[in-house]
Structure formats: structure tokens, C-alpha cells
Amino acid sequence: MKVMDLKSIPELKSFCQKNPWQGKLYAQVESLRRKDSANGKPYWELGIRDAEGSMTLRAWSDGLAFSQCSSILVCAVVEITGEFFCNGQYGLDARRWEVRTLSKEESQYFFQGKFATDEDFNWIQQTVARLEDPRLRELALLFLKEFGSRFCRAAAARKIHHAYRGGLCRHTAQMMRMADQTVSIYPHLNRDLLITGALFHDCGKLWEVCPPEQGFLIPHDMRGELMGHISIGIELINTLWRKLPLESWKEISPASEDVRLHLIHLVAAHHGEYGFGSPVCPKTPEALALHFIDNLDAKLEMIKEAYATSHEVGSGVFEKHHTLNVMPIFPLPPLSN
Q1: How much is the pTM?
Q2: CATH number of the domain at 118-301, out of 1.10.3210, 1.20.144, 1.20.120, 1.10.287?
Q3: Sheet holding 42-49: strands in order across?
Q4: Which residues lie closer than 8 Å to 200 by C-beta, 6 or more apart?
Q5: What's the pLDDT tens digit per position in 315-334?
């Protein structure tokens, strides 16, 4: 099978809702654990990830993959051959599957996979370059200059939404587009502040959920685990802020210190509630707008994925999505004449 014929994990999840698929899948090993079932039957639990998604397979002791898994290493790029199918509430699974480690030459095709961030990143760069407030514009440009490559490969989450390499760039660009449109409806909002807040709201995830330069795995980072992305984001803003030529803007109103504090408030409050991890609740119009823009884009991504990967239990009705806490209903199609 040619590399171009391979399906990604999300494509497999969607396709297998209606039909099993016999073929090959390229992925990177995220985890591998030797376990025993409740009746004592041994098996390997193999977690894999590609450019767009992740899944878990189980290799039982009576299958070919069981002995093969014993020689597989975490982070290796593997080829999995078998019959992929949707296993109800357990999601994508495979029957009679085998696994082998790809050679270095074969792996190059895998790492040349989809990094769908160029268009979004270019749009983000152009948008921040047009910000009117010089403090926010130079801060944003400095961030993209120093951390652009890391920003482009970071995920937006480990599991919930945009949980793949480049997911943060996609999520951020969508939020910035919504922020721009929101200001056109509510012109009293500070456009520069809201757009910059969208750019920086999850900047701490460059350390919390960021794959390496080559690969799709999302390792656990010491800084990310000890501090969390909101604390890291605030620290990053302050670090970059100190590099700006603030003396050049002493006569500008509002004062630079007020701009810094309002931007930090947006990052600190974007989860909306103490119970969701924000150290402070939204207290400004821009902070409220950013919180709901973030939540909307995340929720729309979740329900889109639910349609593609969840089991349809009735006509247009999908099994309960635990994060959304509802059984998604297929949307009304647009009017066609």
C-alpha cells in the first residue's frame, strides 16, 4: 500500500462507523503496558498517535501482535496491519492485527505527514502585525519570533479538543477570527486587547502539551505539570514584556502597566471559573468575551469530532459524549434550492 493510501486515525474512526477497513496504519507508539485481564489473561495495551489523533489497541496472548509488542519501543514509528472496526462504546479497534517497527527510511514518510498549520500561522502573523497598540503588537510579534516553531507544533489539549500536533495554532487562529468578528458587533470592546488575549490565552501549553520537533507524542513536561499553562502563560508575558522598549511609549494612553495588567487578566480568567482552574473570574468585557470565544471553539470542535468518531445509536442520534455531557444530534443541513 502506498503511503498516500494510508488513513489517519480520525479518518479511520469516521470510516469505520459504517464499514470495517482492512489495511495499514502508520503511527507513533505513545505508550505500551503489559497487563492482565480480570480472568488473568495477559495482554499488551498499545497507545498510538499520528498527526491528527490517538487510539488504544490491545494485543491478547493468542494473537500474533502479542509477541511482536514485546520488542516494540515507546516513541517508535510502527506499521499496524489488520481489520479496523468500530467497537461500540470502546471506539476504534482492530482484529487480527500485527505490528512492526518501521525503518528510519520508512519513518521519514510518516514525519512528512499533515502539519496543517502554515495557513493559520501566516494569518496570525499578518493579524498581529496590524494591531494598532504598539505595546501589544510588539509583544505578539516577539512571541511569534522567539517561540513560533514551538507554537506551531503544540497541541491545545492532551485529549479533550484540538489534541494533536498543531492543534493550538488551529484553535488560536479560530479564536482570533471570532474575536475580530465579535468586536465588529460589540465595538466598545478593545480589539487589540481581545485579539492579543486570544493569541496568549494558552501560550503556556507550549510547555504543557507540546510534541518534540519530530514526532506526534505529547510528553509530560516538568514545568507544565508543576505550574500549569495559565501560570506559565502569565510568567511568559511578563518575561517578554520586560524586553519591550517601554520607555518609547511613556506618553501613550492607556499606560503600559495598565495594558500589561489587563492582558494578564485575560489569560488568568479565560477558564471562567475557579473550579475550572482560573485563579480569577472574568472581570472585564474583554475577559468575558475571551472566555466564551474559547469555550465556543472548543465545544464546536468536540461535537464535530463526536459526529466523526461516535457510534450512531439511532437515526441522527449519537452515543453520549462524556465531555459535552449530551447525546449529540446530527445538525440540520443548510437549505438547498
Answers
A1: 0.79
A2: 1.10.3210
A3: 54-60, 42-49, 21-36, 77-86, 92-101
A4: 140, 143, 233, 236, 237, 263, 266, 267
A5: 989 888 888 999 999 999 99
